[in-house]
Amino acid sequence: MYIGIDLGGTNIAAGLVDDSGKILYTKSTPTLATRGYKAVIDDINKLVKDIIEEAKVEKNEIKAIGIGIPGLADKDGNVIFCVNLGWENIPLRKMMEEELNIPVFIDNDATVAGLAEYEFGSMKGCKNGILLTLGTGIGGGIILNGEVYSGVHGVGSEIGHMIIGENFYNCNCGKNGCFETFASSTAIIKYTQKLISEGNTDTIILQKVEGDLEKINAKVIFDSAKEGDRVAKMAVDRLVKYLVIGIFNIVNFMDPEVIALGGGISNAGEYLLNLVKEEFEKFKYYKTLPAANIVLAQFKNDAGILGAAMLGKHGVR
Amino acid sequence: MYIGIDLGGTNIAAGLVDDSGKILYTKSTPTLATRGYKAVIDDINKLVKDIIEEAKVEKNEIKAIGIGIPGLADKDGNVIFCVNLGWENIPLRKMMEEELNIPVFIDNDATVAGLAEYEFGSMKGCKNGILLTLGTGIGGGIILNGEVYSGVHGVGSEIGHMIIGENFYNCNCGKNGCFETFASSTAIIKYTQKLISEGNTDTIILQKVEGDLEKINAKVIFDSAKEGDRVAKMAVDRLVKYLVIGIFNIVNFMDPEVIALGGGISNAGEYLLNLVKEEFEKFKYYKTLPAANIVLAQFKNDAGILGAAMLGKHGVR
User: Fold this and answer.
1) What is the pLDDT of residue B75?
2) In chain A, what residues touch B159 (CB-CB under 8 Å)?
């Protein structure tokens, strides 16, 4: 058995997971990152101990602990950056292993979610696959030959910051044209707000949010587009256009077997998937040759715990 | 020993290569592709036989033959496309093995050049590396864990068609914004011609080409930039800007150990390399972390034969 931990900006979710990917027991606690890293890591260690006690397992049955973090870790288990948590160079593995005496493995949360999809979900059994988490930003989880891939220096799979065009606003990273400024929920919200502000007010989006542009979210936009709303469709079409450019770049480069779409945007489901597949067929470079199968990710909230547990499993085997 | 064959649009170059990468004997013949694929493949087979005879080796000393093609082959050794040669679905391996009775391995020419750099040149000993061949187009040769990587469907490493912005002219592939329309020799020539046509005539480029815009080539532009010419420097700066965007996208995605710059543009040497490294340092996402080492490719014309021979070596081992 393994314990998987999904360390987020708001909550720390932990779960006991068996070899077959069954989540046997879960427990969570608020992150409260402003307390500083020591208090947060104390809470992570306490969650692990609580789970072992409450789920009535022996500690030596836990082969490993995996953690998905919203940032970057090095190969020695140090957290290099976690911007959301204000962490920089934190010896997370060391602080956990000293307290718990169980092997700890750490990787980026999108990478970990990709591993969950590879082990039990949309990328199961595939040779190479990539999960795109289309949320407030865009994360990437790359699986190569059955293992997570984070590059030689651990700075790879930052797919959200691939530059694919020129945009009307800059990315948080300071650059212009990042993939996530075109195809994340933030991107589609900003573009819809822009359209409406520029006078495209003949839209049911405005009714749904009672005239408050700040209340616009990706679900409202997709729902409106499904109802045939012109402005919402413009925003969705633009997102699809650039999402396909990003997918096209990935295919031209890595040619994976599967590209899975996850994160909040993927809640638009088959509606989104069909638009993406249609556009991709028009767009792909070798028209007559097979290319990546584009699918919806299977796991929603559980991907973090499940993938982290599998990170532990891959680490110790 | 191996025989490496560099199948180009103009010439077919073949060489006898030992395990240590020493080219012992070479011979070449014009491609004359308009004769049709059978005549070309007859000539390839004849080159192999001639080399064996003229270099006075026994046929059974040749462990394998590798071929780099300006196109795409499948895993069974069929050439799927070779646009320059007018080839489509040609059973190249079969037609050679039946005639020669030596194992034949086929891959894209940029991939093969990447293998030469990995075995003996600028990417020697690295875990993961990418060669960018900056010529009339841009090719990519990806080495992952010591083997060439062409993706699951064999359509990967088409780095030249990664979309990175919006450009004033469309790519041959029909799309707008491909990497190779910004950072190839074709790209810098077209942009320089545009600058001059738009009235930037205060440039020594015009003297060097005697006023004939059609005579402008990448060397003239880089030479003029090195001499401080304003227009040439604008063109070089633009190429460097977009070359670094392409490199940045590769680093964000695959995080390789080395990125080697080859092809005609790389003849600008240290001058280009320094500009690229300077711009990349400003551009990279994780400022304080190490990322790919950017270097000049080591081999010029020999990369094709050498890499193809090594493709044979990797194939049979």
Assistant:
1) 84
2) 252-253
